[in-house]
Specification:
- It contains 7 helices and no strands.
- The longest helix is centred in the C-terminal third of the chain and has 32 residues.
- Helices cover 79% and strands 0% of the residues.
- It is mainly alpha-helical.
- The chain has a single domain, classed as Aspartate receptor, ligand-binding domain (Four Helix Bundle (Hemerythrin (Met), subunit A), Up-down Bundle).
- This is Chemoreceptor zinc-binding domain-containing protein.
């Protein structure tokens, strides 16, 4: 995979994972979602997750710290998003909002920082 393709995947992930907060806010407001909680909680269902688990990434990259940190944080992000969605869709609006404003926001910001750092390292050729 070329450096530019990797940069594009990481940049797309930053954008896509930023959009989750709006989806979850909508689920909290309406008490429903077209998304399945179990799918949201999995880190291999979104486009970025599919790419992370694909064979498009070199074994050397998969052994590196940036990849492994991002993979772990991405998993934690989706587990938390799934928890927020679960609470929202069973009528626990306050609990869902508290999770969204607390742990979810923390995990989202941490993931985006790690993705941005990885992007910088890819650009630098590391």
């Amino acid at each position: 995979m070329s450096k530019n393709e990797m940069l594009e995947e990481v940049q797309n992930a930053i954008r896509a994972h930023g959009a989750w907060k709006l989806r979850l806010k909508t689920a909290i407001a309406t008490g429903s979602s077209s998304l399945k909680v179990d799918d949201v909680a999995r880190d291999d269902c979104c486009d970025f997750g599919k790419w992370l688990y694909s064979n498009k990434i070199s074994p050397a990259t998969k052994q590196g710290m940036p990849f492994n940190v991002v993979k772990r944080l991405h998993s934690e992000f989706h587990q938390c998003a799934g928890s927020v969605l679960r609470e929202a869709t069973v009528g626990k609006r306050d609990a869902a909002k508290n999770m969204l404003d607390g742990p979810f926001t923390d995990k989202s910001e941490t993931l985006v920082r790690a993705l941005s750092k990885w992007k910088g390292e890819i650009q630098a050729g590391q």
